[in-house]
Fold this protein.
Amino acid sequence: MKSTAIKELSEGDNTFYHFDKDTGFWGIPSISHNIRYPVAPDKVFEATHNSFGNRDDETILDHSKKTLLVIGGSHTWGVAMEKEKRYTDLLKEDGKFNVINMGHCSLGLDQILVAIKKKSKLFNPNIIVIEQYPWSIHRILNTYVNGFCRPSYSINNKNELKLNRVPKLANIKFFRNLIGGYYDFKKEFLEYKAGLKIKNNYDPKTDPIFLLWKTRYYDYMYKLSEAIIKEVKAYCIKNNIKLLFMLGTVNQQLKYKADTSLIDYDLPRRRIIRILNDNNIEYIDTLKAMLREHKSNLPVVFDDGHINERGNFIFAKLLKNYLSKVNW
């Protein structure tokens, strides 16, 4: 169903999303809107979801080719980008792979694990690429996002990864809002106890995830991240799937210079890389290429940090080169 009216989308908009019992929310199938974003106010984009709820072409697999599935957040979905200029579509131009884009805005690493287990089988991928924006790793601490309850993982007293499923009542918006209100209160109370000021007067320059004196609060987050990543790896090994992470570059590293050595915009990226190295997981780090190509008059991201046309080109080039090098 296509709407001809132009929708103004902003952060947290759920125009393209509905309840999903497994991942909390997922793309609405077969929907199309003309949209405009604050970061690109002069452009109107047509965004369309296919019958699987993904912003992608209808899937017709060429069984003579390997299938590469890319899953991630809004950079992969393509905020303020024409579909054909996203890095996944640029990768399609080579014709070497069936490329499936399963990116969705505000998707967390925990949801990515659930989606890989529950939704990727439809495409029988040979390769899975997880696009991870380092700052967004914190989403695994938040069980309520944009009006939807999310599944979450926790580590039990046996040091095992436990899935906390989406509450059954969350399919009804009224109950979803009630449950979400409790989740929000719980999260904000824990942040308050830890001395984190996130909800009011938020300043991206001093986001707590970058503050060295707040690292203890995030230690569990990184421990949980590692457990989730290990589970992704185990699933891929069991199903004979190659796994590759693609790490984005946080906006703060492109825009700001920290006022003090106690603020480290590279902290989340380094912690994730350590996890990937410790577990022998392949990854592409976009930082050097993005910093090298970023100019004040020729940026690689929009003002809010989402990759623009140049950023998507860099992502595509890095991914093409890596896949060629490892001969996957």
The longest strand covers residues 40-48. Residues 63-326 form a domain with the Rossmann fold fold (CATH 3.40.50.1110).
